[in-house]
Amino acid sequence: MCGIVGIVASNGTVDPPNLQRMSDLLVHRGPDGEGFLFASGCWDRLRYSVQRRAERGLDNSLIRVGLGHRRLAILDLSDRGLQPMCMPDGKTWIVFNGEVYNHAEIRSLLKSEGHEFTTTTDTEVLLHAYVRWGERCIDRLDGMFAFAVWDDANRRLFCGRDRLGIKPFYYATPNGNFTFASEIKALLADPQCQREADDKAVVGFLVHGNCDYAERTLFRGIQSLPAAHTLTVDAATGGMSIRRYWQLDARSQGKQTDDAHIAQVREALVASVRTHLISDVRAGSCLSGGLDSSSLVATIGKIWRDEPEAAAAIGERLYTFTSCYEQQRAFDEREYALEVARSVGAKPHLVFPSPDDFWSNFQRIAWHQDMPFGALSFYAQWCVMRAAKEGGVKVLIDGQGGDEVFGGYAKFRYAYLASLLRGGRIGVAIRELTGLLRQGDRYVLDIRKGYRYLPAYVRRALNVDSALQQILTENWNDAIAEDSTPANRWWRNARNGNGAGSTMMQRIQVDDIVVDTLPQLLRMEDRSSMAFSLEARVPMLDHHVVQLGVSLPDHMKVNRGWSKFAVRQAMSGLVPDAVRLRKTKLGFAAPDRAWLADDLRAPINELLENDLRCQRFVNVPALRRWYRGSDARVNTESFLGLFRVLSLEMWMRAFAL
Question: Angle between the 518-530 and 377-390 helix axes, to the nearest 10 degrees?
Fold first, then answer.
């Protein structure tokens, strides 16, 4: 995993110290090496220079292109893997962040056609693949990646991002130039880029708790290249084109028996985990005690036993990392995590997040995240990443994406019930409702508890929004169109659920994966891991696994009240039943209410009593009155709104907005 930066100066020149400043802000992404490429001269005859540092002594009067790279060495730890990397003729260059898991297969194919390689890196394979297949090379890649290729022959920069958006790519076009980086903070080091909040996007975060929608960011003028897209810049003119190269297909892929579906899921997970273990440095795993991370740890254990050469990165023992809460045991899953660790002979590491540590790191986390985050649970993830770094692990396997891909959220159960009723399958609907009740899901009988899935006008009619939410949103109705809210998209998908050969649940899954839920989770995953120079890998988001999971029939995701039914069945004999058949669900949760209402009351009060940078977005006097009142101790849902305000404030302080 690495950090990349670059500038194509179609209207002016590149300033090397500026590119150095951008790169320096990404040192946490790549502490193992850095390098720069500069192309200078006229567009029809460029000269190339590679530098370890972008020194002031360079003549920048004619520098047209600058690329920078920060290296986190994972494959081929020698200096041969340093970037920017070029083809032997010195005309095609690349800066690359991520992993191409099928690089060995692509390398073999290219070798058969006469290509010669000098490293064992996937970077070199990608570079040769571009030379061989051009922009269509991206169709052949399996993995997580963001990269930029400078093509001298065509005077263009070709950029690409992986299908699920696991690795980040941000860009801006100040004064007709094109500037890109792995993180927004690096772009802000360019004096030509604006350091200004996008007010409408900020309000969208406060309303919905999300700020990762396609190309939008919370900074005016800075955009994200959407997942599964490429971007091409014509250097001479500054013209830019963006193309989607892959789309998730929500339709079921033909009829098969349930046993065949279960076998497919097991085979796909084993195959994905096997490729995600390829590494020349030590690998470990997050382990929350839930089904997703437990399935991955159990699968690692199977590969470790059956194919030791495929799990060489584990070393003599698998390390797992779990967050625990001594004082709030309702959020503590250590008994499940330890059960799974014991079953595979892993060495567990227990992490204990604390409110004081969170508060002291709040602004630092906000800086690393580039944008606000909507829940305290992300701090638990931060602590796990920090512990993995301290434990000597450099690659961390994580279960991110399992809920979206295999149907783990409550809304998928409700969608299944709705589609059964709509289709007149009353008997099956009653069976599923009974199963949900046996699993302890009481929300299904109380529409008010499912408030987040209700359109705004229904929420208002039922008066389900908390007092704080009403305070915070009283002046925002005109800023955010109601049709854009996640709840309204949910109901729109429900109405159209039987169209285009897909079910209601499948359409909502696609929305979660592509638009609403996963993009934010992946940003948090990337920034939390890279803050500690770790490479986080997510086998459940291999695009083959994602396509398989979404295309499964609904009853393989929700069955008699069980969520992620196919995964539970596929993991029979691998994951201990105490975990495989759990009815509770937490993930890397945190005791938001207890911390915000009690443990952190003094520092929060002190913060609210001072001038807030976010005051133009929030009714601060009303917020103060609410937090002093009794409702601030009893209304759990209000803490969602409170934390968003705190997160926004810390973000604005971190970036001096």
Answer: 30
Q: How much of the chain, in percent, has pLDDT values that exceed 90?
A: 66
Residue found under tokens 């001072």: 610
- Split at pLDDT 50, 70, 90, the class of 480 is very low
Q: What is the DSSP letter of 332?
A: -
pLDDT digits (tens, 9 = 90+) for 229-253: 999 999 988 899 999 999 998 887 7
Q: Mean pLDDT over residues 351-371, rounded?
A: 96
Q: Name the residue among 171, 244, 296 with its Cα closest to residue 574.
A: 296
pTM of the model: 0.93
Model pLDDT, residue 296: 97
CB atoms within 10 A of CB 502: 21
The secondary element (H helix, E strand) that includes residue 460 is: helix 456-462
Q: Which value, to the nearest 10 degrees, does the dihedral of the CA atoms of residues 602, 603, 609, 611 take?
A: 180
Residue 29's DSSP bridge partners are: none
- The SS3 call for residue 186 is helix
Between helices 258-276 and 291-306, what is the axis angle to 10°? Answer: 70
DSSP state of 603: H
Contact 104, 174 (CB under 8 A): no
The interaxial angle of helices 638-654 and 601-609, nearest 10 deg, is 60
The answer to whether 378 and 650 have CB atoms below 8 angstroms apart is no
The Cα–Cα gap between 414 and 508 comes to 11
Where residue 576 falls (left for φ over 0; alpha for ψ -120 to 50; beta otherwise) is: beta
**Cβ–Cβ < 8 Å for 7, 14:** yes
Regarding whether 274 and 210 lie in a shared domain, the answer is no
Residues in Cβ contact with 255 at an 8 Å cutoff, skipping those fewer than 6 apart: none
**What backbone phi and psi angles, to 5 degrees, belong to 535?**
-100, 110
Q: Look at residues 545, 580, 615 and tell me which one is the last residue of a structural domain.
A: 580
Is it the case that residue 516 has pLDDT exceeding 50?
yes
Q: What is the pLDDT of residue 498?
A: 42
The answer to whether the beta carbons of residues 22 and 5 sit under 8 Å apart is yes
Under 8 Å between Cβ of 652 and 367: no
SS3 per-residue string spanning 582-601: CCCCCCCCCCHHHHHHHHCH
Note the pLDDT of residue 497.
Answer: 43
Shared-domain flag, residues 65 and 175: yes
Residue 505 backbone dihedrals phi, psi, to 5 degrees: -65, -45
Whether 448 and 313 map to the same domain: the answer is no
Task: Report the alpha-carbon distance of residue 331 to residue 589 in Å, rounded.
Answer: 6
25 within domain boundaries: yes
Measured distance CA(321)–CA(428) in Å, rounded: 40
Residue type, position 374, single letter: G
Provide the domain limits for residue 483: 410-511
- Asked if 143 and 75 sit in the same domain, the reply is yes
Paired strand residues for 286: 321
487 falls in which pLDDT band (50, 70, 90)? very low
**Quick one: tokens of 282?**
């030590």
In this predicted structure, the answer to whether residue 483 has a pLDDT above a threshold of 50 is no
Tell me which of 479, 511, 543 is where a domain ends: 511
Query: Taking 60 as the threshold, does the pLDDT of residue 476 lie above it?
Result: no
Q: How confident is residue 561, by pLDDT bands cut at 50, 70 and 90?
A: confident
